[in-house]
């Protein structure tokens, strides 16, 4: 393992990287994605568990469904949701040409 | 792609090989120990080998990663690939509470404990969409760096540092308690000595190489902890269901638990204190009926843990180490995946352990209990034995309520419970140690960096030479570590309770300011400072007030009956002083003169189902505003903090054009950042 290397100094800038109109559109779309994912988050964090008492009598492979959602179902949704978010945001970056070079 | 990963860095390129070799080596090591055990090597030696050899490996990585370069020390040179940063974040994140405590809490609380599972995973969605990419783009060294640059300098920075230190210190003490528990059990030394032994293991990883050393040890620690967590669960699953996929098969265990619980209840038995009688039932009270208070507590805890996740500096600063914004986002997803592997398994662990105990231990004659129970009937630092057999009805048979196991023991003792060879118990101990050490490392680094970089370099001596900054950072690291170990050695406290405090404090102090700083352009400096201060003071004050001055809290917020109930509880509180007890007794004696508290209208604003009450917890009378446990204290501070920032921003002068440019720049991955204040640049 190399012991001493220079790290990259943080960039400083004097001009914006893209023109303000593109930046505005980009931010609008990024915000839209943020609210979508925030909605998914709220649904799997809270909303679905409001129904846990109603879901619990349904058993799948022995799991009461309400319990399963809190123990596993929501977790799967979080992981899948985040990989989807990363992919979607990259697409938005590329659409507006604001990805890092 | 970014510059850093575009260059052909031989070390980064070889990472896959290095860690594959390391994993293989670890597996061989475990097999070797298993053979040694079969050859008759005593358990104690196996335990020693596990603890010392794994710590030795971490120390080795820590030492070869030593560095004298500032950006290496603070952000590992910003070249940690998304996948590895995900692993490092995973072990940074998964603490003694996750590894040792979580399955135990699920064992005790059943559905109620799932709040921890949800809360400690869902928060990563907030990290990814609201914060990590933007903090990475901002691209400096610490979270207070961002607060300082965005909110006009040292005042905001100082408040951030105070919140960071409170939350991280509370958290690191809990980790050191965890290290002490494991070391005590497997090395057979006193708890205080165990704490200091563990400390040496923590320091050797982080002191010389800072973030760089911590990153690469954390990846190594993740590999050990996940192997150590999955293997016993898989073996238990095979034993109970015949299929090696615990995450899928514990449904069978849940059904059996439901059946056994019903049988115990039918026989008129009650569960031991703190253990639910209805493992899978959501939001129920002790009688099995729906309880609004249980539901409110569940969701409040989920909320606080999630928001806290997105505000804990030792986690956020991990995303400063990726080569690019894009990789920062990707890295959050990987982090959650690696965390998910363990959390997804924890409920299985709890269910299998519970079936094993309910089926094979309860109902047996106490005289003929298996050996592992005796191994754990040693004193815990909490003043009761880890496993406490209380033959309440003196019939010589172990009833449901007579088997009392401390939640922290469930994971550590599971291999023995299931009759697995001792080498598996050693493996679990090594995993627990890896979890506690890695989190403690990350936290100590966050603490020391805040003090050395934010306080010393940014606020005291702007011209300090690099060498001196790094020396100061290391000295502070050692001082903070010793302070934390001293506190841990002198305090008996449940790990989960302390950890959850850290989440509420970070959530209320930092989350609103960070999120509004990125997403609400009009957030002004004054608004952010007020928001952080009010969130922090409200939450931390609430925690202290309810936990340590519960009776006085009740006199303020409780109605007459609740005050009298709290006064009666005080008589049984182990830690209450004689004066407090005398005062409580005088309240009870003069019950006719006791009136509703001055703020009782506020404490009972939601009606009798969510009335302010108190409970006897941890030897104290603990107040509960609206019936919400104080581990969810952030539920009050977080909204208050958002509200304050929004309102004050309305009435203060809007941020300057330079600041708006700065915000525009951090929102876009491409290009540099135009700092509003040049002095905020790090190099």
Sheet having the most strands of chain A = 2 strands, antiparallel
Shape of chain B: globular
N-to-C order of helices and strands of chain A? HHEEH
Evaluate the radius of gyration of chain A: 21 Å
Bulk shape of chain A = elongated
User: Total number of β-strand segments of chain A?
Assistant: 2
Q: What class, by secondary structure content of chain A?
A: mainly alpha
Structural class of chain B: mainly alpha
Strand content of chain B: under 5%
Q: How is the largest sheet of chain B built, in terms of strand order?
A: 1-2
> Hey, which two chains have the biggest interface?
A-B, 67 and 80 residues
End-to-end separation of chain A in angstroms reads: 28 Å
Secondary structure topology:
The complex is a heterodimer of chains A (101) and B (683).
Chain A: H1 20-50, H2 52-55, E1 59-60, E2 63-64, H3 65-95
Antiparallel strand pairs in A: 1-2
Chain B: H1 3-6, H2 10-13, H3 15-38, H4 43-64, H5 70-75, H6 82-93, H7 96-109, H8 114-138, H9 143-150, H10 154-187, H11 191-206, H12 210-241, H13 246-266, H14 292-309, H15 313-316, H16 325-343, H17 346-360, H18 371-375, E1 387-389, E2 403-405, H19 409-417, H20 422-460, H21 466-490, H22 495-519, H23 525-548, H24 550-557, H25 560-570, H26 578-589, H27 600-603, E3 613-617, E4 620-624, H28 634-651, H29 657-667
Antiparallel strand pairs in B: 1-2, 3-4
What does this structure look like?
The complex is a heterodimer of chains A (101) and B (683). Chain A is built from three helices and two strands; from the N terminus they run ααββα. Chain A is mostly helical and 101 residues long. Chain A has one domain (20-95). In chain A, helix 1 packs antiparallel against helix 3. Chain B folds into two domains: 15-358 and 418-519, Sodium/glucose cotransporter, CATH 1.20.1730.10; 520-652, no CATH class. In chain B, 69% of the residues lie in helices and 2% in strands. In chain B, the strands form two sheets. In chain B, strands 1-2 form a two-stranded antiparallel ribbon. In chain B, a hairpin with a 2-residue loop joins strand 3 (613-617) and strand 4. Classes of the chains: A mainly alpha (101), B mainly alpha (683). Chains A and B meet through helix 1, strand 1, strand 2 and helix 3 of A and helix 5, helix 8, helix 13, helix 14 and helix 16 of B.
